[in-house]
Amino acid sequence: MNRDLADATVAIVGLGLMGGSLAAALSARHACNRVVGVARRRVTCETARELRFIDRGTCDLAEGVAEADIVVLAMPVGEILATVPLLGPLLKPGCLVTDVGSTKHAICAALDALPAALQAVGGHPMCGKETSGLSVAEPTLYEGRVYVLCPLARTSPGALGLARSLVEAVGARPVLLEAERHDHAVAAISHLPYTLAVALVNAVSALAASDPACLELAAGGYRDSTRLASSDLQMMRDILMTNREPLLEALHGAQVELGRLEDALCRGDTAALVALLQAAHNHRREMMR
Amino acid sequence: MNRDLADATVAIVGLGLMGGSLAAALSARHACNRVVGVARRRVTCETARELRFIDRGTCDLAEGVAEADIVVLAMPVGEILATVPLLGPLLKPGCLVTDVGSTKHAICAALDALPAALQAVGGHPMCGKETSGLSVAEPTLYEGRVYVLCPLARTSPGALGLARSLVEAVGARPVLLEAERHDHAVAAISHLPYTLAVALVNAVSALAASDPACLELAAGGYRDSTRLASSDLQMMRDILMTNREPLLEALHGAQVELGRLEDALCRGDTAALVALLQAAHNHRREMMR
Fold this sequence. Notes:
2 copies of one chain form a homodimer. Chain A is α/β, with parallel strands linked by helices. Chain A has 2 domains: about 5-175, Rossmann fold, CATH 3.40.50; about 180-285, Orthogonal Bundle (6-phosphogluconate dehydrogenase C-terminal fold). Helix content of chain A is about 55%, strand content about 15%. Chain A has helices at about 15-30, 40-50, 60-65, 75-85, 105-110, 155-170, 180-210, 215, 220-225, 235-240, 245-265, 270-285; strands spanning about 10-15, 35-40, 55-60, 70-75, 95-100, 120-125, 145-150, 175. In chain A, strands 3-2-1-4-5-6-7-8 form an 8-stranded mixed sheet, with helices on both faces. In chain A, helix 4 links the parallel strand 4 and strand 5 (about 95-100). Chains A and B meet through helix 7, helix 8, helix 9, helix 10 and helix 11 of A and helix 7, helix 8, helix 9, helix 10 and helix 11 of B.
């Protein structure tokens, strides 16, 4: 395996926001020998080439990954899961397979089933936007962000080192985490907020059906609180369906907290209510430090 | 009663974000004859004078409102409720009393108990910031915003006209609404999002206690989703405690929606889950149009 990123050919499968930005960052920083882009549509490859995000583009997965030292799967989780089992016969021995999917348990299990001659590390950069596609990709997307790496038991130190180099090359900070811990953490700080935003919008929509004044009064606070409900549907469906157990646990936690607030309101217990509001106020201040 | 805003002396009680911005807008637009500010601390009066937000400032409520044609109460809801009953003996006959409090049922009931010689209209401008105080006040805060007016049965057409003039003078759009309808609407689009943010922060905090990785991974999405949990505590306590019934109804609606999402996840029912996500996606797009 080629352990030096500078000499590596990196194939990025999927040239949307995440893949396009990764290609852009690697190219802008001359971090590797060659960036090959694989996209479903020819026009995406052409655009990525014109933007100098990639050296070469193709719609053919086999052709795109054939010479790769590193393959980065940058599609929605469902497509990553469908693609990993196809890779075995297509890759050079020693090639490192990684991904940018938002849940890691199912993907790492799929990576673990790759032929022994290949290397694999799960990945999840903690960045993104509410918009998607190559048109919003930018070489600075990863700068200063946490980029989770989930090594498998079979991952060699050299492969992990190469994955680290890739992360650091685009300006991100690698954080090693087991897939299970990663999935529980993102269930809490990412999938739970999304789920609450969906519930909020659907609840307000039901209330607004009996009085449209609701919507006339909605201001900036409501817009911000519900922003996540506009996330890409296919992406979120895959994320939630591959992280059901941790999300259900987090949802349970949120319902317990909602029950506490409801109870204090029901009883008109100002002191109990203030204690809950104060706790959240303090927790957020500490978190955001 | 003086029905022409241009000739009116306006006393604003409370020179924080809302009151300070109202004073600033009236003064900048030369919308009335005189703006008197009433604040607890002398330094606030002095600063408001230096900024030319007010013509005169005082810490004495009786002195500040004695010559007023319009009194605007711009404090947290609890202080408004404590102040209204004191006003009767302090005001000129025909003086219009209004407020900027975020809930209207309790305040309108208090206004309704004022002496018959006074006029009263409840008010709630749909603007604000997560920060508070005179230092963040600005003359443009109300521009283009919805400003709810809740006339009482006893409100004269002239008094309502004067309240409308005040709202329009600061660039806002008056929307007439009964107190009950207002309170149900803001429970849904404002107090429910706040309550969900509090529950989210407290739930994540509990989950993070068993694995601090949660907080290390928290990115911009989490910061935005929880922003409301950092709202001013006294303000939110008063708002929630004076809007318990509508908020409990809205909370129930949110829990029903959370239950639906939980059920779809539990059963692994992708189609049911997608239908809920899609509904929220569509609702939000329609709302934000």
